[in-house]
Amino acid sequence: MAKKAQTQTGNRAIRAIFGDAQSIAEDEKPIVDLDPNEPRNGIKPGQWPGWPDSAMPPEHPVKVIGRNAAGSEYYFLTATGHFRTISKFDGRTLADLYAPLSDTLKWCWPAFGKKKVWDQEQGQEVEKLVVKRVERDQAFDCLMNEAARKPDFDPYSQHRGRGGWQDSQGRFLWHSGGWLWAANGSKLERSRPAEHDGFLYTRQAATIEPWREAVRPEESPARRILNDLRTWNWQRPYLDPILVLGWLGTALMGGALKARPILFTSGGAGVGKSTLLELMRSALEGAVITTVNTTAAGIYQRAKLDSLPFLVDELESKAGSTRADNVIELARVAYTGGDISRGGQDHEATTFTARNSFGFFAINPPPMGPQDKSRMALVNLARLNSQNALKLTLKPETDGRMMLRQIMDGWTDFQGRLLSNYYDELKPHGLDSRAIDTFGTLLAAAELLVGPEALEDCGLPVASVGRLGEMVAAATSIERSETLDNWHECLDHLFQSPIDAWRDGVKPTIGQVCEKLRQGPSQGGWDAAGARERLQLVNLGAVDKGKVRGAPHIGACLAVPLDGPMLKRIFADTKFQQSVWYSALKGAPTDIVIRGLGNGQKVRINDSVKTCLLIDLDAFEEYASAVE
User: Fold this and answer.
1) Checking CA distances to 109, which of 150, 215, 424, 495 falls within 20 to 30 Å?
2) pLDDT at residue 77 above 70?
């Protein structure tokens, strides 16, 4: 039995609060800029080695990152650690790079002028050379020369924003905007954003910082959140609350994950969707972007280089609108971290790398293809009844921070043990790699946060080898069965299409004709001649069992050519249009779409001899029966 959820108290909580106070005091230290006329480490203004443009000044506050291959853009970190892209140097861009250290800028490239000062020894005013401004052209030349000495820099592939990341040593990094965090054993370390492990981290608006003390599962807010989640009326009460909790964990992991599962919550009025959204937003307060009725462009313009999660409400499908489709497409790309390019007004493409987790809410999910559903955990809510009293114990100031600390401390265990355990458990029960990447990752994240005992209390048999995989496979079988292979989806569309031109007033589907062909005359079906009479109306052909040239063991076959006006009409407005069906069917197993013999098989269709793909109907029937 799992222990009751507790909150961290005592000396460890006091140390965490004190650590926060120390950090705030350190962050608020004023920035001091020295007089540009005074020597710095014994070096007078404008007299450092390499002045004015052969090298950078010593202890220089602006970091030169490099330039693009075309030499049209230069990249810098300002004196305050912010990233800047400069295509044209002028006084304002130079001042921005060095602000608030304008006197340091003058010390580096001084322009002198005379100024009257009071000489105490002479007792009178005298003229003296002092630094009055900056020699901008010298500064520009030095910065450009330094950029040219650096390797070319790609801001889209080498620049990382806020959120979770993983370095080449397998460590989990958290970029909170002002600091870069990592766990070293039981110790939490932080440093200012900079170049690390081949990537550039820069200062940005602040998001949450990890809790200063280690958090044990029994004192994690995740247990309290899981207890709250269980008060909703879920379709699968032993699994769905755990998947939602797991998503909260993976949302914070962000760019560090190989696969970022998508969560889609659906349900009508009175199911508590808005309250659930409030709970999830509160748990990730400060680290999540919540939006309603948005567009894909709006999302990637806000995300930019961050790996922070998105919660999208009211993702409903509307007639004549592709908004929901485009948002789901973006989430699908973000699942494994893909690049999206968009053209700009200046004819320069903008590349956006999506590494964000997405949680969607809708009354009715929009139409989705198998490539979308296979990346999602679809959870459904039923209407609340008198026995449901939604529990909402929100602590937004600490919940996300404490779960983030658990992720940082447990990252090695999550990557090395938990993910592997769930893979080994789910694989024997028919879940493919994509499904395991989705459900296994969510379950592993949930166990990391609350421990296995809490999952057992929900009814998920984590400790029972084989039983867990069996239960998860059964619970997700319907949504996984909706995901057909690309070739199968193509053939399924073909079989379900009616033969509109059939002259007896009856419109059989292509699949019905194929079934008659497969049965043959001995079982009350048709031979190839009878099937051909119907199939040729939609540019298809038929071959009798045992009549495939060079392969007498092959059953009756449907012959599918590369083109045909009626075939184009059948596949119009699908992803298989414009003869794409032909290449899609080639992706079938070799015993269903015949290789060698089938590719190149000549079949007469409407008095024309066509090169066709041959679909072995017996082999497909055996395959389909096994899938069912």
Assistant:
1) 150
2) yes
CA pair distance 348, 408, nearest whole angstrom? 38
Q: Does 68 reside within a domain?
A: yes
- Among residues 567, 543, 540, the alpha carbon closest in space to that of 555 is found at 543
Residues 249 and 365 occupy one common structural domain = yes
Residue with tokens 């079934």: 515
pLDDT mean over 443-451: 98
The DSSP bridge partners found for residue 352 are: 340
Residue 505: Cβ-neighbour burial (10 angstroms; 0-12, 13-18, 19+):
exposed
Is residue 565 domain-resident?
yes
Position 348 scores a pLDDT of 59
* Residue 445: other Cβ atoms inside 10 A: 31
Q: Judge residue 185's burial from the number of C-beta atoms within 10 Å of its C-beta, 0-12 exposed, 13-18 middle, 19 or more buried.
A: exposed
Checking if the pLDDT of 410 tops 90, the result is: yes
- Give the C-alpha distances (Å, rounded to integers) separating 321 from 358, 365, 366: 20, 14, 11
- Give the range of the structural domain holding residue 599, as residue numbers without chain letter: 486-627
The mean pLDDT of 16-39, rounded to a whole number, is 74
Total domain count, the chain: 3
Are residues 469 and 492 both part of a single domain? no
Same domain, 470 and 538: no
